[in-house]
Design brief:
Blueprint: E1 22-36, E2 44-58, E3 62-66, H1 73-80, E4 88-93, E5 96-97, H2 103-112, E6 113-116, H3 120-123, H4 130-140, H5 149-159, H6 176-188, E7 194-198, H7 206-223, E8 226-231, H8 234-240, E9 243-248, E10 251-257, H9 258-263, H10 268-275, H11 285-291, E11 327-329, E12 335-337, H12 340-343, H13 345-355
Parallel strand pairs: 3-8, 3-9, 6-7, 7-8
Antiparallel strand pairs: 1-2, 1-4, 4-5, 9-10, 10-12, 11-12
This protein binds adenosine-5'-diphosphate and magnesium ion.
């Protein structure tokens, strides 16, 4: 067996990681939050919000990052966009390290990588017209002189299906879905190659969500954009992604082609996320409950020894509470970190396959 890697590019390794279509590459990223403990402020506590995450995105590729609240998804996004400091690991865009960039190089990299957040209420200043909001990235990136500003703004609004008359209005004059379109338009203004979408549709009602998702799909097709699409709902993330990485308590526990992850989940946590997606079948309620967690969520400041998911895992074995699982390749694509793959492959194959929704499958086979 070849050494398995966390590689959301489809199995290409470090040797050829500078291939022409390589865009974003995150290697062994660690982001630690610290707090003081004790009456005298002595002793420090650490929370490894991101604990050794490796993932990459090729040009034009959409990679989904899914996990429950608190798993570290936003911290990954913030590290990539330099909103939080990185403790260790590397982040490169087209092979250029983001951490070392400054001045013009940093502005160039920033131009390529734009972010859209969950909450259009807080990301759009209520006292600013839409024109001012959309011009902002041109100011920040120093592009004002080099482009026909009005034309760029019209093009961006047109791309998200809003009329140019929107420019002189204020955020409160728009619905939640329209505001999110404006946030997307603003991200498009510098003509990026990649968008990081952090829970970008999570605040919207289901039908508005569907419209914004199909807008994002159109934009990607028309402009060849790459996405890092972050969300907690696996059904939504699946719809947007070519590949999916599943995050739990600061680590990626499974990744692979979106179709494989959804139809043959290899990690019990992925299976639980899938089971949480409603499929309208009452007869599966019992199975679903079996997959969803008997134990408590571990305290992220006190990460348990062994697999972090063990306390909630219906298949946990002794070894799961004693040792970290190794990353193992999966024959149908991707990797998983789970002891079941080595000590209980049959159990994983049969039980996960049987319980998870009504996709036709029989659980993942483990490459060995
Ligand atoms: N500024 C911060 N200071 C301390 N802890 C933080 C901070 N931001 C996030 N966290 C913690 O880091 C962990 C990961 O958070 P986050 O990246 O926001 O996860 P997600 O986006 O998956 O919900 C959580 O336990 C959260 O409470
Ligand atoms: Mg988040």
């Amino acid at each position: 067996m070849t050494e398995p890697r966390r590689d959301v590019t489809g199995g290409r390794g470090p040797a050829d990681s500078l291939e022409a279509n390589e865009l974003l590459e995150v290697r062994d990223l660690q982001v630690v939050y610290r707090r003081r403990r004790g009456l005298l402020g002595r002793g420090k506590d650490e929370l490894r919000a991101v604990d050794g995450v490796t993932l990459s995105v090729r040009e034009g590729e959409a990679v989904g990052l899914v996990g429950e609240s608190g798993s570290g998804k936003s911290t990954v996004a913030q590290a990539v966009t330099r909103l939080v400091p990185v403790d260790s690991g590397s982040i490169t865009l087209r092979g250029r390290p983001l951490s070392a960039a400054s001045g013009k190089e940093l502005r160039d990299l920033r131009r390529e990588l734009q972010m859209v957040f969950q909450d259009p209420y807080s990301s759009l200043d209520p006292s600013m017209t839409i024109r001012s909001a959309l011009r902002e990235p041109l100011h920040v990136l120093g592009l004002k002189r080099s482009v026909d500003v009005e034309r760029v703004l019209h093009t961006a609004l047109d791309a998200v299906g809003l009329p140019t008359s929107s420019l002189d209005k204020f955020p409160h004059e728009f619905s939640g879905g329209q505001r999110q379109r404006i946030a997307i338009a603003r991200a498009l203004v510098p003509e990026p190659t990649m968008l990081i979408l952090d829970e970008a549709v999570s605040a919207l009602d289901v039908s508005t969500q569907a419209q914004v998702l199909s807008l994002l799909q159109d934009l990607r097709r028309e402009r060849g954009l790459a996405y890092l699409f972050i969300g907690h709902d696996l059904a939504v993330v699946r719809r947007m992604s070519d590949r999916i990485a599943v995050m739990y308590l600061g680590r990626i526990v499974e990744e692979g082609p979106a179709e494989r992850v959804v139809s043959h989940p290899a990690h019990p946590y992925t299976a639980a996320l899938l089971a949480a997606v409603p499929d309208g079948r009452k007869d599966r309620e019992h199975d679903r409950r079996k997959l969803i967690h008997r134990g408590a969520n571990p305290d992220p400041w006190n990460r348990p020894v062994g697999c972090s998911f063990a306390t909630r895992c219906p298949f946990a074995m002794d070894i799961c509470f004693e040792q970290d699982p190794q990353t193992t390749g999966i024959r149908q694509g991707g990797t998983v970190d789970c002891h079941l793959q080595t000590s209980g492959a049959t159990l994983a194959g049969e039980v996960l396959g049987d319980l998870v929704a009504d996709h036709e499958h029989g659980g993942a086979e483990y490459a060995s």
